[in-house]
Write a structure and sequence with these properties.
Blueprint: E1 9-11, E2 32-34, E3 56-58, H1 68-74, E4 82-84
Parallel strand pairs: 1-2, 2-3, 3-4
């Protein structure tokens, strides 16, 4: 992911993604992350908290995840945060 550090929007909705690599923190300009209906997704790494420009995180339909509350608590520092569950 280091080569995509200027990426602003990432739509992974409906994919068979099982985990998000901790290197997601390298996407330092990411503002929008859509993980809707990623039914195999198990958790969101704490490294997502280093995305200081992230404004929208969509996780509705990700029924297997057990780590949302831990991560979402850390994201409250952002000026706008949207979480659809």
């Amino acid at each position: 992911m280091e080569d995509m550090n200027n990426l602003r929007e990432l739509r992974l909705d409906g994919t068979a993604l099982k985990e998000i690599p901790s290197s997601i923190q390298c996407l330092k300009w990411l503002r929008y992350l859509d993980l809707e209906n990623c039914k195999n997704l198990l958790n969101i790494p704490d490294s997502i908290c280093k995305l200081r420009f992230l404004r929208t995180l969509i996780v509705s339909g990700c029924s297997n995840s057990t780590n949302y509350l831990k991560t979402c608590g850390a994201l409250k520092i952002y000026s706008f945060f949207l979480l659809h569950i």
